[in-house]
Amino acid sequence: MSRRVRAWWPGLAVAVLFALPLLPEILGARLLVFRDAQITHWPWHREASAELAAGRAPFVNAAASGGQPLLANPNAVLLYPTFLLTRALPPEAAFNLHYLLHVLWAFFGARALARRFGLGSGGALVAGIAYAFSGMFLSYGSAFMNSSAAAAWLPWCGAAFLDLGRAAAARERWRAAVAAGLALGLQLLAGEPAISLLTLLLGAALLAGAAAGAPRGERSRRLASVAVAGLGSGVLALALAAPLLLPLRDVFPLTYRGQHSYSERASGAAAFTEERALEWILPRFGGNPDQIDSGVHWLRPHASEDFVYIWCVTFGVVPLLAVALAAARRDFWDRRSAGLAAGAAGALLLAFGFALPFYRLVFAVSFLRRFRYPIKFYLLTTLAVALLAGLAAESLGRRRIDRREGAITVLFLAAFVAAAALAAPAGALDRWIGPVAARASSDPAATLDALRGLVRGDALLGALATLAVALVLRPGARPRDPSWLLAALALASAFPWGLPLFVSAPADALTKPPALVRRLDGPGRLFVSHRLPRFDPADLRRAGSDALPRMSRVARILVEQLVPLTGAPFGARSVFENDPDGSYGYFNRLASEAADASPPEGRDRLLILFGARWALAEDGEEHPLFRPVTGLQVAGRRLVLFEAPHPIPELRWAGRAWRRPSLSDALDLVRSERFDASADVSLPGRRAEDPTGPPNAARVAITDVAADRASAVVDAEGDGHVIFSRTFFSSWHASLDGQAAPVAVANARELAVAVPAGRHRIEFSWDPTPFRRGVAWQAAAFLAAAAVALRTRALPR
Asked: What pLDDT was estimated at residue 391?
């Protein structure tokens, strides 16, 4: 076998083995629905595709919470290259491939970084598999479109920074700087700023380590030149990501994260806990994500965290065992392994959040406080352990196994045997999680049985993997380089627990219009009760053969109940979102919280004011200002669709103005009986001012209403305001008779422009200038990168 073939066939084998079980997802016959994949990313992409098909840039998502920024929302991942797949492939296949391709991209990136660390082909293969098929990465890669892409670029950025730090000649240094800038720029376009900060932390450590490894007399000069080239990489990355960063800069001050300073509890949510270390050897200890009840991750109510952000934290049994075996010998420890181990331990400690006191140093920086979820530090731990696993595989191939490694192997086997014993019926596992299952599950007995099966299955798979590793490393007849077999074992042992994370449902079931859509005929928005989705698990069990119902069945229930934003692909436009990522604007979030805190009549006034024409709720929920129009049974629950008798249009006239000095005062006013939503407007003021007399009348002839613009001709008998029912951001501009007009915050959320008496033409539009400027910067960055690459290209031998 030639050297070139030996270089590419392992990667091809990993790609094929990973793709075969997921062919229905690759072909688009099934759609990924785990967590954010269904409730935000899929609807966002369908809305953006619809805007593009209509010839408009997707600046605003009119289906979300009164119109939320879409192109400028980093979580939407619309400016990332994989979005182009939607232009060439069926939308379901293109959507799924974004997730699946980044698992492979992470594998190739970690393998490339391992080679930079001096590992051979076999050890690098172990490192690539250990990172890409770790619990941390697959939790990202199956649910979070932005996090999976950013995490996949992490090792590529590390490899580029390592090349930059080691470059001795200027030609090599600037080529490496361009590579680092390209990788970091694409990571920024993925839209996960916390992981980009972790990448910079990793890059700084690698650059410092590389500079320290230079000859003593050259260290200062090398460090200075690397700093200059690194600064160039940062400028290039920012320019490449400018089409996202410049529009984001304009809207960020009025986003929820831009205005809200997170509390200690919110900033430290979803930290790593000591109980989760059990997942290192029992990956499904938290439950099966495709099962209701056992799939809610029973550690959530058991631990102190608010919710589980990362589903599984395992490194893989084979990589962990390899590190444990190699670490028992002194010859394993050198500068590389010690540095990786120290970095892994430091990142792990930070992942514990406020459980350890020094995390307060992160919380003390207001900028860093906005990047929640300390468990993200665990991504660096995972990458470091993956590289250690590659080093360990090579180290184990250079020596014979002795009693010390045999004892470690026996300890691993004993741990799996003990886990199987503890998971026996009426065993310790039942006593531990039985009370939790009794409180959280609709069928505690079935939940306990499912979790027992998962633990026993993981114990069996772990024991078999341990025995297989012992067989590969046994004294006597053994392969010359066992790292190849260890890599194969690592991949094979990851599939049984890793593939179920890619929860999917039949695409035709999810793209079929829900029953209620035909009732949502005409303009207006839908309010879906924040108590939904509701379903009866027993009703789902009768429909299938599983002891516990599958999440893939619940995915269709979310669509039938039009839970935002799942109704957006079918034309439903929401007043408020249940998911905070879909409720991006600060004004909108405050209005939503006020509606939740209001009594039924006050809540309905707010809904009607913000454009609600329909309300969907479970039978028994009060909507006194709406009238019921139909009901239906969904998953054992009866839902009622209500309609407002007199909905108000999203572009309208207000002939009477109220002034309130604060948002809370404005929200109190607009949900009161004194305020007439069809004729009044509440505007900011230094003090409270109430109007006198009746509202001035006007005729509004609407000429255009779209997601990012509106226009009308107004004939007004007196002064007043034209209101556009969109969430206020400074990117909204207006013109009156062709002249720029100031836009005010109306009714604590919407847009308003003052219009004098007479006939006038009013126009609202979203400012495209930051995006256009960003595209220009990106084009210039690509040209500069190409020029540097050509200027510094390697000369022929």
From this structure: 96
Q: What is the pTM of this model?
A: 0.93
Contact 166, 56 (CB under 8 A): no
- Yes or no: say if 762 and 755 are a contact pair by the CB < 8 Å rule: yes
User: What letter would DSSP give residue 41?
Assistant: I
- Report CA torsion sign: 366, 368, 372, 374: negative
Distance (Å, rounded) from C-alpha 568 to C-alpha 552?
A: 19
β-bridge mates for residue 632, sequence order: 639
Measure the CA–CA gap between 74 and 276, rounded to whole angstroms. Answer: 29
Locate all alpha helices (DSSP H) within 37-79, ordered by sequence.
42-53
Tokens 């006597």 label which residue? 476
Cα separation, 279 vs 286, whole angstroms? 8
Q: What is the DSSP letter of 514?
A: P
* Single-letter amino acid code for the residue at 513: P
Rounded distance between C-alpha atoms, residue 284 and residue 308, angstroms: 14
In sequence order, which residues have a C-beta less than 8 Å from that of residue 298 and are 6 or more positions away? 286, 287, 433, 436, 437, 440, 447, 451
CB-based burial label for 750 (10 Å; 0-12, 13-18, 19+): buried
| Residue type at position 601 | E
Q: At what angle do helices 219-240 and 769-791 cross, to 10 degrees?
A: 140
SS3 569: helix
Structure tokens at 62: 């009119």
Distance (Å) of CA 319 to CA 141, 322, 492, 493, 501: 20, 5, 12, 10, 20
What is the fold, at CATH topology level, of the domain defined by 651-771?
A: Immunoglobulin-like (2.60.40)
pLDDT, position 367? 76
DSSP secondary-structure letter at 150?
Answer: H
Q: 582-625 pLDDT, tens per residue?
A: 668 899 999 999 999 999 999 999 999 999 999 999 999 999 99
Task: Calculate the alpha carbon distances from 432 to 284, 425, 440, 502, 783 in Å.
Answer: 16, 12, 14, 28, 61
What DSSP character marks residue 109? H
Rounded distance between C-alpha atoms, residue 570 and residue 455, angstroms:
41
pLDDT of residue 548: 73
Instruction: Name the stretches of the chain with pLDDT < 70.
Output: 1-7, 213-214, 217, 219, 293-306, 440, 476-479, 541-547, 580-583, 793-797
Dist. CA 317–CA 225, nearest whole Å: 42
Helices (H), 499-650: 507-511, 537-543, 551-560, 586-597, 600-609
Q: What is the pLDDT of residue 645?
A: 92
What pLDDT, on a 0 to 100 scale, did the predictor assign at position 4? 60
CA 684/CA 660 separation, integer angstroms: 5
For residue 444, give Cα distances in angstroms to 450, 545, 547, 651, 678: 10, 18, 11, 52, 51
Q: What is the predicted pLDDT for the residue at 295?
A: 57
Phi, psi values for residue 78, rounded to 5°: -90, -20
Give the C-alpha separation, 758 to 750, whole Å: 24
Task: Pull the structure tokens for residue 273.
Answer: 């806990």
Phi/psi zone of residue 277: left (φ > 0), alpha (ψ -120 to 50 degrees), beta?
alpha
pLDDT for residue 305: 47
* Domain boundaries defined on the chain: 14-504, 651-771
Q: Are 382 and 152 in contact (CB under 8 A)?
A: no
Edge to edge, the sheet with strand 651-654 lists 651-654, 720-724, 750-755, 744-746
Integer Cα distance of 223 and 210 in angstroms: 9
Percent helix, strand, coil in the chain, to 5, is 55, 15, 30
| Cα–Cα distance for residue pair 626/605, rounded to 1 Å | 10
The rounded distance, in Å, linking the Cα atoms of 594 and 363 is 28
Write down the number of H helices and E strands in the chain: 31, 19
